[in-house]
């Protein structure tokens, strides 16, 4: 990793009287900017003509400089106040990532109006728009941004009458105000006072997360949360000061990974973000590959599913691979665990271009803006999520035989948004730590600096009828890695049953011959997996091939592709029953083992029904 400067690990671990350990960085967090607008103003002063954002416009790119972004945000903020937006009446953003989306959000935050980017999937992919109506009822927005009112017509109709004005990217359909008009607004004394009054505790954003129930909950993000999180990243990644970061990114700004971690990392460090109009989907990833021919990133962010879909392009298209790795220093994955097989393929692709790329990850949540830990040191496994960032305190609390990771720091949310601007305080434990529901293990108890390993969601773990706990997060990653690319995701079954099973989500085969071939490949791969994972908490004895993808509307998955195990099991309970039926249906696989042990065994035999 020549040329990539990383901060040394400075870790302090202490044991508490309650059996919980405390982890923190000995490196103090530096001075935190007052607000996001101060970051933008500083960059506009330092390099006004540098490109901040770029988006596709035909065969070329529409660009926005730092100076233009700062100027537009000031005027847009004034216009929003003039039209009734306030600290209690947010701006609701329906549209996908784009320059106009960014300008409206920055303008709102400049004058203390919360920006609430909503997953575009709620508006464009949903069939019932139930989540969108729920979000609108919670927000009671003063303004709604839809880049094209015609394209979002069904969603706007589904939301019903709103006491809000509509903003667009140039269209006057449905009485919309073009964003260009907002950029021409006069900046009076009221707007100047509002901007000056913005402080660290001012609500900057409201991000909606579905959680285990599937119902959207608006997580408040303050200015302090956003700016302190970026100072944490900067302290651990000093290489960002060496060369302004350049990235191509599709990750939605309605989520904390793309909208907080990536967007503000580029802003804080004076880099350039090329907005990718591709995404982690089988056909749209081709657009990402095409965009990579025009953009040579220095740092690249994606979810595991995105890397898996991009890999065939990197492995077979020399031009795309050369462009991707030409200047790449860092490859960053998050939002879900990266299968080891994907990690190895990425490393091999980098080696073909003679690049020594730093592969890394972090851990956090919407409630922590998002980063709390970072693997800012070389690791040989994708499971390590690192150590606490400067300014972050972790508490590893024993819960149900696991270690729950709890967080305290300036980046923790004050609570959830309630219509009108009230905030429901977040629930903290007796020591002021935020319980997250995520479990971790210590990579090397003799060397805490080796970091923590993600160990799944405590609420998703379950016991077999033998009383053996199943760590769903860890086992799921191992199964998906072993069965890739035939299996895209998996949900484990077996609560209070004798054997561990799985729902295996597969791409629909085109015909019966392909279906049979798929089944046999998966059986063979499961045999190999089971030979190496003979313990009853890991050995997959029953599986069902599922060709209907997880439903976004039903809360089974997010628009980033992260699966919700609990919702899938609830919605597809009949499939779970089919797995354990005495006479299995056609797509159920039953694998026999000569004996389950705590360690590896010989390869199991297979029986096809």
Folded structure, characterized:
By secondary structure, the protein is of the alpha/beta class. Among the domains are: about 35-40 and about 65-200, Rossmann fold (3-Layer(aba) Sandwich), CATH 3.40.50.980; about 235-355, Rossmann fold; about 460-605, GMP Synthetase, Chain A, domain 3 (2-Layer Sandwich). Helix content is about 30%, strand content about 25%. It contains 18 helices and 31 strands. The strands form seven sheets. It has an eleven-stranded mixed β-sheet with strand order 1-2-19-20-23-24-18-17-16-15-14. A five-stranded parallel β-sheet has the order 6-5-7-8-9. The chain has a five-stranded mixed β-sheet with strand order 27-28-29-30-31, sandwiched between helices. Helix 2 crosses helix 3, helix 12 (about 305-315) crosses helix 13 (about 320-325) and helix 12 packs parallel to helix 14. The protein is globular and about 75 Å long. The chain starts with 10 loop residues before the first strand and ends with a strand.
List keywords for this structure.
single chain, 5-stranded parallel β-sheet, Rossmann fold, GMP Synthetase, Chain A, domain 3, about 600 residues, alpha/beta, 11-stranded mixed β-sheet, disordered C terminus
Summarize the structure.
This protein is α/β, with parallel strands linked by helices and 609 residues long. Helices cover 31% and strands 25% of the residues.
